[in-house]
Design brief:
By secondary structure, this protein is of the alpha/beta class. It is 16% helix and 28% strand.
Length: 326
């Protein structure tokens, strides 16, 4: 067990960062990690259903990524709109921030934008001279490691096929591998966690337990709680689903219908209880997501698996291949 940030690092060749999705969602490779034996298999996502048994249940995140990315009319400032605070008033991220200090002004689709406040996390509160809905007609906000502008194909492929509840600025990427056909043959239920921009924030604290997580809103319906409580085993699809289940479960592991928010930071030596299988993508070095998966699989075994994935030329990150941990 380690709490040192440097122990959650690895070197990834840049060419292994998947810049585009595969032609078919379910064609991804799937590295299977057997935790108890510390054994690795190389499979295909199309074989995922073979690892589920009677009474098992998939829990998936049905959040929908909003078209929240905009540029100023002169193309010099990028905005990521996070939240509508009131009439003609929004919270957003801007880049480059040095050009948008308090009082700075620009225009978006002809509307005058003025920075009113800079929040502790660097977000800007802006006001406009007219009411606009910036979640309509914007672009999908791709992660920063996809070094290209989003296009019309991303509007479809950077959403899961079951995305339903708008509210995220990043996709729950483990769910991107599912097709309607694959999902229809597997017992499943949905919860919702709206993935925020903090998912990409690097951990800067040298002792990871000093890191403070961002807050994300979630909801669990009554039918979903009943289904999860009755399942023999829970297969969590993605780290966002893990965060919801770990935050919402009572001590006995049971869930109930609820809406809430979580700032939970799961890392070794924390144990992830009430979850039996985890399907996840490959995550960035020194990220909270890598630390969460380390708590489930074991840090040394997980990093050994990452090293093997690099040797075997797996595709990494949002549009990449996946890992199933048993």
């Amino acid at each position: 067990m380690s709490l040192a940030l440097k122990d959650y690092d690895y070197v990834l060749p840049e060419e292994l960062i998947a810049q585009r999705p595969l032609e078919r969602r379910d064609e991804s490779r799937m590295m299977v990690l057997h935790r108890r034996e510390e054994r690795i298999e190389h499979r295909r996502f199309a074989e995922f259903g073979e690892f589920l048994g009677p009474g098992d249940l998939l829990a998936l995140n049905n959040t929908r990524v909003m078209s929240a990315r905009r540029f100023s009319d002169d193309g010099k400032i990028e905005f990521l709109f996070l939240e509508r605070l009131g009439p003609a008033r929004w919270k957003c991220l801007v880049r480059p921030g040095k050009k948008m200090r308090v009082g700075a002004m620009t225009k978006i689709i002809g509307a005058t934008v003025r920075v009113e406040e800079i929040c502790a996390g660097g977000e800007r509160v802006i006001s406009l001279d007219r009411e606009e809905n910036f979640f309509e007609g914007g672009a999908i906000p791709l992660p920063p490691y996809l070094r290209r502008p989003s296009d019309s194909s991303d509007a479809e492929r950077y959403q899961t096929v079951f995305a339903e509840v708008p509210g995220a600025v990043a996709a729950p990427t483990a769910g991107l591998h599912f097709t309607p056909e694959v999902l229809s043959g597997l017992p499943h239920t949905f919860i919702t966690l709206h993935v925020g921009p903090g998912t990409f924030q690097p951990v800067k604290a040298e002792k990871i337990s000093d890191h403070r997580m961002h807050k994300e809103e979630f909801s669990i319906s009554g039918p979903a709680a009943v289904a999860i409580n009755a399942a023999t085993r829970i297969a969590a699809v993605g780290t966002t689903t893990v965060r919801v289940l770990a935050s919402a479960a009572r001590r006995d592991g049971k869930l109930f219908e609820q809406n809430g928010a979580t700032e939970i930071f799961i890392h070794p030596p924390n144990e992830i209880r009430h979850i039996d299988l985890l399907l996840t993508n490959f995550h960035l070095p020194r990220s909270t997501l890598l630390m969460l998966v380390s708590a489930f699989a074991g840090r040394e075994f997980l990093l050994a698996a990452y090293a093997e994935a690099i040797r075997e030329r797996y595709r990494f990150y949002s549009y990449g291949d996946c890992m199933l941990i048993l």
